[in-house]
Amino acid sequence: MSIHNKTIAQLSQGLKAGDFSSVELTQHYLDRINVSNLNAFITVTDELAMKQAQAADDKIAKGTGNILTGIPYAHKDIFCTNGVKTSAGSKMLDNFISPYDATVSHKLNQADLVMLGKANMDEFAMGSSNENSYFGDVKNPWNENKIPGGSSGGSAAAVAGRLAPFATGTDTGGSIRQPASLCGITGLKPTYGRVSRYGMIAYASSLDQAGPMTQTAQDAALVLNVMAGFDEKDSTSSERDVEDYTTSLNDSIKGLTIGLPKEFFSEGLDDEVASQVMAAVKELETMGATIKEVSLPNSAYAIPTYYIVAPCECSSNLSRLDGVRYGYRCDDPKDLEDLYLRSRSEGFGEEVKRRIMIGAYALSAGYYDAYYLKAQKTRHLISEDFKKAFKDVDVIMGPVSPTTAFDLGSVKDPVSMYLADIYTLSANLAGLPGMSIPAGFSQNLPVGLQLIGNYWSESKLLNIAHQFQQQTDWHTQTPEEKG
Amino acid sequence: MSLSEEQVGQIAYLARLSLSSDELQSNTKDLNSILSLAEQLAQIDTDNITPMAHPLHMTQRLREDKVTEEDQSESFQEIAPQTGKRHYLVPTVIE
User: Which chain B residue is nearest to residue A454, measuring alpha carbons?
Assistant: First the structure.
């Protein structure tokens, strides 16, 4: 097996046994990144990576390392990294060398991980195809004419293309799960508040949540162990204790009740995607799970609800980008207003401007009740639907995305793009944890199975995913072998 | 209800964005189609439903009132477009 096809768990053993060093491993990935066409990275931090790898090797030699010491990774360019450009995929922050570390960045550093670089993404995490990056489209490793999904498209492509053993991602409306699904990897969005948002450039603060993107559920558990935890610097961070997410991976799933929302298998879902998802559910049934139909009657309203709530929060969050303290400033502003107007108009891309305007309108006097307040109420109804469903079932399953990856450049209308987020948005609106795991292929493109759990059920989701991955080999298939 | 180009121009200005006439035209079309999507919300009965501002219904945590931030003004100002005498500089506001 090529070294880059190994999981974190396998690489960790290899490092400990001295089969290879972190320096060798890191160089191997940097070489692969160097010749890759995927455009998965905005910045490759090769010098820093080699330094971190050397330090990790020293620790391993002394026997003071931990399980993740010396493992390389791709870091989504939305996490602030001290001394390294943090662009959020935007021209607005193309010159932003972060003066501090996000809590997630700090935690990954403390765990002796090796950052290969900053992964490409849709501008300010707004997008479902990674076509909204100022730094160019990311290509899907399974077919370079296809989108990798978004907004964590660079992260997903890096892991699927074996340019990194794992990547960080963020998920506001599906941005971990959808690219994970379209690139055939494992992605986990934890419960809102589980991972600190401090230093993670804000898009929609009541929805944003960071998580791991990996080859396997076991790897996701290892990485979540490092990322999760209370942070006093994030006022929405949960004080709840962090479990060791690896301890229940091997539990049996006999007796598990899986809920299939009928609304997730109706009109608009591609037939082949539906049959792959159902085949995966059947597999779990043979492993001892019971299947039950549930209903999430308000889930269809997740799209209008999300596309009001998220733009409102973004219009507020992105008002800080005004060309005064950091980021892009236009040339020769003639007065302060000209500085604001031109810095923002030249610095932001189309989709970001569109969402800022929707938010500004929906929050404005006279429209607030009809849009923002109404959407907040609908959000409550969507969340209540889940509460009811979880009285009867342990986990909810369904598709992640209505189709497999579509052609780059093929969806030009924003609303058509939004509609494809139908299955992922409601977990964010409710704040629930969600996962995507590889569940098959349709015309040589990966199909993901979505798992949505109750609050704080990350261990359960990882357990189910791990058990599924013991019985299937979708997650071990690589684009290289397919090609 | 749909927005006119003039209204979209006004919304853009409120968000401190300026749009070219082409952008104004395309944004008017796009914003109207997004808002017609949002019109679906009107079909839902939300009487007596409280708005959900936080997914876990958490309230803001309080902490002791003491200074915890270090002074990092120098490193923060290093990346600013223009500074002088420890201030951020912008074009003259008051002559």
Answer: B56
Q: What is the 3-state secondary structure (H, E, C) of A256-313?
A: CEEEEEHHHHCCCCCHHHHHHHHHHHHHHHHCCCEEEEECCCCHHHHHHHHHHHHHHH
Check: CB of residue A46 under 8 Å from CB of residue A53. no
Q: Which residue of B has its CA nearest to A307?
A: B38
> What is the token pair recorded at A314?
């973004």
**Cβ contact (<8 Å) for A377 and B17?**
no
A436 is catalytic: no
B5-43: CATH, from 1.10.20, 3.40.50, 3.40.1090, 3.30.1380: 1.10.20
Question: Residues A51-56: what's their mean pLDDT?
Answer: 98
Which of residues 116 through 135 in chain A touch B, CB cutoff 8 A?
none
Closest-CA distance of chain B to residue A236, Å:
7
Q: Which CATH superfamily is domain A3-255 in?
A: Amidase signature (AS) domain (3.90.1300.10)
A252 and chain B in contact, CB less than 8 A: no
CB contact under 8 A, B19 and A345: yes
Mean pLDDT score, A109-116: 98
- Contact criterion met (CB < 8 Å) for A100 and B91: no
The DSSP bridge pattern shows strands A72-76 and A114-119 to be: parallel
State the pLDDT confidence band at B55, using cuts at 50, 70 and 90: confident
pLDDT for residue A483 = 43
User: Side by side, which strands form the sheet with A41-44?
Assistant: A41-44, A114-119, A72-76, A166-171, A209-214, A186-189, A434-442, A445-453, A395-399, A257-261, A290-294
Alpha-carbon distance A455 to A431, whole Å? 8
| The pair of three-digit structure tokens given for residue A103, joined into one six-digit string | 């809590």
Chain-wide mean pLDDT for chain A? 97
**Interface probe with B: pick from A337, A361, A422, most Cβ of B within 10 Å:** A361
For residue A456, how many other CB atoms are within 10 A of its CB? 17
**What band does A481 get if pLDDT is binned at 50, 70 and 90?**
low
A181 carries an active-site annotation: no
Domains of chain B, by residue range, sit at 5-43
Residue of A87, A128, A151, A155 with catalytic role:
A151
The 3-state DSSP class for residue B3 equals: coil
Does B55 contact A324 at a Cβ distance shorter than 8 Å?
no
* Catalytic residue chosen out of the listed positions A6, A22, A76, A238: A76
Closest CA of chain B from A347, distance in Å = 10
Q: Is the pLDDT of residue A317 over 80?
A: yes
Task: Tell me the residue type at A96.
Answer: F
Q: Name the region of A124 (left: φ>0; alpha: ψ -120 to 50; beta: rest).
A: left
Q: Tell how many helices (H) and how many strands (E) occur in chain B.
A: 3, 2
User: Domain boundaries in chain A?
Assistant: 3-255
